Each structure stands twice: as structure tokens, then as C-alpha cells.
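Q: Here's a chain of 146 amino acids. Please give me its 3D structure as C-alpha cells.
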Amino acid sequence: MRWTWAGLLALACVGTSCRSAMYQKDPNEEDAMSSNVPVFPAPAKNRCVALGKASVRSGCDDAFYLASEYTRRLSVGDEVCLEGGFGEEPGAACKARASVIDTGPNRVKVEIRQARPDSRWFQAEMRHAWYEEGALVDLYLAERGY
């Protein structure tokens, strides 16, 4: 009986609960139960709706449409700028360059490829992040002052 319990305990420890501390979790591994890839959700309220009937609302609506189209057309391999020019080709003003590595329903997964020291992404090079489409649209609007 004692050996049966020891065997069951050994089988239970094969799973993720008994991982040794000397092994670090692979940041590129995406296990649904223990994923460490951050997800940036869409904001609860659209920035353009928050403007109400202000005169800048029509410009915001146009920018919202452009951002939505740009975000929906992103595909694997596309280079994007996450800070300092989202929605444009990554140029000299871009503080954080990323590459689209996966897409899903209402989501885009990016890998940070290059970040300047003054970027909020500086410590996150080669890391992955999922963005909901609404979050990327909000990023576009925020960078244009809406």
C-alpha cells in the first residue's frame, strides 16, 4: 500500500506543481493555465464617445475608423511602432518597434524587437504581448491627442 501512494505522489509531481526552482518558465510557452504573456484589453469606453458633441468629435471618429482598419489588417510579419507613431511605418521617431507574431479573434500578438532607453518597453525587448484590437485603436487615438 505504501508503494502505491508513493507512485501516485510521484505521478502528481510530474505536472507543473512540482517544478524545480532551478528551471525557469519559458517566456514563449503559452500554457493556458500558467501563461505569463500580458494581455492589454480594450478600454471600457471609447475615447471618441467620451468627447460627447465637441467639435473635435468628427476628427476623432475619422481617426477611430482609420485605426480600426489598420489594426484589422495587421498580419504576421508586419512591423509596428508601439510608442511614438503607432499606425505608421516604424521610423526615426519610433521609441518601441515590434513585430506581429500571431493573430487571433479580436487580438494581435506582438514581440518587442527594439526599444529606446526612454521607452516604457525598454526592459521588455524580445517579450510578447497580446493586444485586443480596441486597445491598439485606443493607442492610436491617444498618440494623436484624442
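Q: Can you summarize the key feature?
A: Confidence is low (pLDDT under 50) at residues 16-25.
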